[in-house]
């Protein structure tokens, strides 16, 4: 019941708070291992979180874990998602939510990530997925400008948060070095008023 009302009872990624201001935080995140799936959102009619069930099956959130050990893997937060141009689908063949827009004419794909627990220090230490759509990869230390907000992360709300955060970071002399991330800390069935979200930009 706690998850329906937004209670976050799972591990969240470790980070060092570098700076805090009224408009954002600058955070340095430790290296981590992620499980991700890249898919065409149109395949999941009316369900923009279609990749969630694929990753949840991998860790065993809904029953038997779909990995070769098989091993139950603890759920963490946030869930990361990114929208990417179709050429980025090749990433899925190799490798809390994050959204990147493709160029005009590009078919947009969505990549969703679960952060794996800290006990997995390298990608090869994590259980191998049975579903070939799930890719395991490591991420190194990284720094983000972050703003937190509640409620439903609708396209309009996210767009407003992204625009304001980018302008605030650039105003204060930070260099944005990539597309924004949208991190969602609650599962899809959490009631919208109780959700926790963050918009994040990689910075130097």
Q: How would you characterize this protein structure?
A:
With 204 residues, this protein is α+β, with helices and mostly antiparallel strands. It folds into two domains: 15-29 and 141-202, no CATH class; 33-139, Regulatory factor, effector binding domain (Multidrug-efflux Transporter 1 Regulator Bmrr, Chain A, Alpha-Beta Barrel). It is built from two helices and nine strands, in the order βββαββββαββ. It has a nine-stranded antiparallel β-sheet with strand order 1-2-7-9-8-4-5-3-6, with helices on one face. A hairpin with a 4-residue loop joins strand 1 and strand 2. It holds the Pfam family SOUL. This is SOUL heme-binding family protein.
Structure keywords:
SOUL heme-binding family protein; 204 residues; nine-stranded antiparallel β-sheet; alpha+beta; Reg_factor_effector_dom_sf; SOUL_heme-bd; 13% helix; 2 helices; Multidrug-efflux Transporter 1 Regulator Bmrr, Chain A
